[in-house]
C-alpha cells in the first residue's frame, strides 16, 4: 500500500509529457502508443497548444525523474514510464540509438541478438508435437489449415469468443476476484496489422477485437482469448483500474505509454495466460469437446500446449528480424529469416515487415519474447497464483521483478475468488 501522496502538479506534468510525446509521434507519422484515460482538460490543453520541440520534452522528462514519488515501488514504475518517454523524445530530436540500446532505454530489458539455438530447440519441440510427414514448416502449416475456421463460418467468431471468455474468466476468478458485472464483447475488424487485441473501455465494458482478414485457427482460440482477455490484457486493465485507480488513487495508471517496461510484463503475462489457467492437455480437451467437434474437425494427434509454448519462443525470431532490418539488411533476406525460423508463410511477410520497420513497432515486438522469458522462472513457483495476482493488481517493473515475491498477499485469494464465482 502506498502511503506518500504525490503532488497533483507533478502528476499533471507527467500526463502532459506523455500526451505531448504521443502527439509528436503522431505528427511525425509514427504510430501512437498511449492509453490515456486522464482528465479531458489535460488532453485538450495539449491538443490545442503549440507543440513544444523535442528538446523541451527531454528537459521535462529530466525534471520529472529528478522529483520522483517517495514510495520506491511507485517511483520505479513511474521512472520506467518517464525514461521511455524521454527515449522517444530523444528519437524525435534526431538522437538515433542502435536498436538494441533503444530497446534498453524504452523497455529496460535486453535488446540483444538471440542465438538461433533457442529457436532450434523450439523447432524440435514443434516437430515432436506435430503429426505427419514433411518439413517442419509443412507440418506446421498443415496443422494450421486443419484447424482453420471455415470462411463461411466467420460470423460465428463472436459466439466462439464468448464461449472462450466465459471459460477463461471462470478459471481466472479462482485466482483473483473479478467484477461480477464485467462485460466482454467481440468486435470484428478488417485489415488490421494484428490477429487480435484486447481493450478495456472503462467500467465494466471490454472487447476482444478479431481481424477477419486473417485465417482464424480454432486450436488457438483459448491461447488468444487467455492472452487478450483473462488472465491477460483485459483482466489486467480491469483489475488495475479497480485496485490502483479507484481504491488507491494512483492517477498515473490512467496514463500508460505502451513502449515502456510495464508492457513487457503485460505481454509476458498474456503469453503465459493459457498455461496459467489450463494444465496439461486441459485446453485441448476443452476445445475438442466444445469447439472442434461442432465443426467436424477430427483429432490429428498434435499436442496443442507444446505447440503454443514453442510458438512463444519463436516470438524471439521477430526481435532478431527487427535487429536485421535496423542494420540495413535487405527486406528479402529478413523475409527469408522469418519464414525459416518463425515459420510464417510467404503471404504473411507483407503484414510483418511494416511493423518491424517502424521505429515504435520495432521496439514493441521485444515485449513478447522478453516478457515471456522473464516471467517463465518467476511464475514457476509454489505461490504462482499470488504472483499472478500481483501482476494483475500492482505496479511492477522488469528490473525489480525478482524482489517482488509476495511476502504477504493483501489481494483477494483463491478462497474468496472461488466464492465470488459460484
Q: Could you provide a short overview of the structure?
A:
With 422 residues, this protein is mainly alpha-helical. The chain has helices at 8-27, 40-48, 54-65, 72-92, 99-107, 116-129, 136-146, 157-172, 221-228, 233-246, 261-277, 282-290, 304-313, 315-326, 331-342, 349-357, 359-364, 366-379, 384-393, 414-421, and strands spanning 34-36, 183-189, 196-202, 205-211, 255-257.
Order of helices and strands: HEHHHHHHHEEEHHEHHHHHHHHHH
Radius of gyration: 21 Å
The percentage of residues in β strands lies in 5-15%
The average pLDDT score comes to 93
**Total helical elements:** 20
| Net shape | globular
Unreliable spans are 406-422
- Spatially, the strands of the biggest sheet line up as 2-4-3
What's the total count of β strands?
Answer: 5
Helix content: 55-70%
Query: By helix and strand content, what is the structural category?
Result: mainly alpha
Total domains: 2
N-C termini distance: 29 Å
Task: Report on this structure.
- With 422 residues, this protein is mainly alpha-helical.
- It has 2 domains: 8-96, no CATH class; 116-421, no CATH class.
- Helix content is 57%, strand content 6%.
- It is built from 20 helices and 5 strands.
- It has helices spanning 8-27, 40-48, 54-65, 72-92, 99-107, 116-129, 136-146, 157-172, 221-228, 233-246, 261-277, 282-290, 304-313, 315-326, 331-342, 349-357, 359-364, 366-379, 384-393, 414-421, and strands spanning 34-36, 183-189, 196-202, 205-211, 255-257.
- Strands 2-4-3 form a 3-stranded mixed beta sheet.
- Helix 11 (261-277) packs across helix 18.
- The longest helix has 21 residues, at 72-92.
- The radius of gyration is 21 Å and the shape is globular.
- The model is unreliable at 406-422 (pLDDT under 50).
Amino acid at each position: 500500500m502506498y502511503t506518500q501522496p504525490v503532488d497533483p502538479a507533478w502528476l499533471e506534468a507527467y500526463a502532459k509529457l506523455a500526451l505531448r510525446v504521443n502527439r509528436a509521434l503522431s505528427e511525425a507519422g509514427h504510430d501512437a502508443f498511449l492509453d490515456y484515460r486522464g482528465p479531458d482538460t489535460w488532453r485538450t490543453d495539449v491538443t490545442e497548444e503549440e507543440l513544444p520541440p523535442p528538446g523541451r520534452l527531454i528537459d521535462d522528462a529530466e525534471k520529472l525523474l529528478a522529483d520522483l514519488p517517495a514510495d520506491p515501488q511507485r517511483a520505479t514504475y513511474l521512472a520506467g514510464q518517464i525514461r521511455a518517454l524521454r527515449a522517444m523524445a530523444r528519437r524525435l530530436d534526431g538522437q538515433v540509438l542502435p536498436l538494441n540500446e533503444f530497446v534498453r532505454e524504452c523497455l529496460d530489458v535486453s535488446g540483444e541478438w538471440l542465438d538461433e539455438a533457442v529457436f532450434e530447440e523450439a523447432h524440435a519441440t514443434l516437430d515432436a508435437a506435430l503429426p505427419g510427414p514433411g518439413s517442419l514448416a509443412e507440418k506446421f502449416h498443415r496443422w494450421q489449415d486443419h484447424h482453420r475456421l471455415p470462411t463461411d463460418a466467420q460470423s460465428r467468431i463472436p459466439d466462439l469468443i464468448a464461449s472462450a471468455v466465459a471459460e477463461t474468466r471462470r478459471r481466472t476468478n479462482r485466482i483473483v476476484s473479478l467484477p461480477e458485472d464485467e462485460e466482454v464483447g467481440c468486435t470484428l475488424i478488417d485489415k488490421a496489422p494484428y490477429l487480435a487485441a484486447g481493450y478495456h473501455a472503462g467500467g465494466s465494458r471490454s472487447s476482444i477485437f478479431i481481424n477477419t482478414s486473417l485465417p482464424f485457427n480454432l486450436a488457438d482460440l483459448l491461447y488468444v482469448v487467455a492472452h487478450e482477455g483473462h488472465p491477460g490484457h483485459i483482466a489486467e486493465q480491469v483489475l488495475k483500474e479497480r485496485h490502483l485507480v479507484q481504491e488507491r488513487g494512483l492517477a498515473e495508471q490512467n496514463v500508460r505509454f505502451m513502449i515502456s517496461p510495464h508492457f513487457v510484463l503485460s505481454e509476458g503475462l498474456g503469453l503465459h495466460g493459457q498455461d496459467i489457467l489450463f494444465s496439461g492437455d486441459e485446453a485441448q480437451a476443452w476445445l475438442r469437446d466444445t469447439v472442434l467437434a461442432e465443426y467436424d474437425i477430427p483429432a490429428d494427434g498434435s499436442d496443442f500446449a507444446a505447440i503454443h509454448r514453442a510458438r512463444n519462443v519463436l516470438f524471439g525470431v521477430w526481435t532478431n528480424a527487427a535487429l536485421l532490418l535496423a542494420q540495413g539488411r535487405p527486406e528479402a533476406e529478413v523475409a527469408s529469416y522469418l519464414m525459416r525460423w518463425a515459420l510464417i508463410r510467404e503471404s504473411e511477410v507483407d503484414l510483418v515487415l511494416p511493423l518491424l520497420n517502424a521505429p515504435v513497432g520495432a521496439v514493441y515486438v521485444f515485449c513478447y519474447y522478453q516478457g515471456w522469458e522473464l516471467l517463465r522462472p518467476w511464475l514457476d513457483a509454489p505461490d504462482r497464483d499470488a504472483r499472478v495476482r500481483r501482476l494483475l493488481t500492482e505496479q511492477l517493473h522488469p528490473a525489480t521483478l525478482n524482489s517482488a515475491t509476495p511476502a504477504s498477499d493483501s489481494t483477494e485469494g483463491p478462497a474468496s475468488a472461488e466464492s465470488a464465482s459460484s
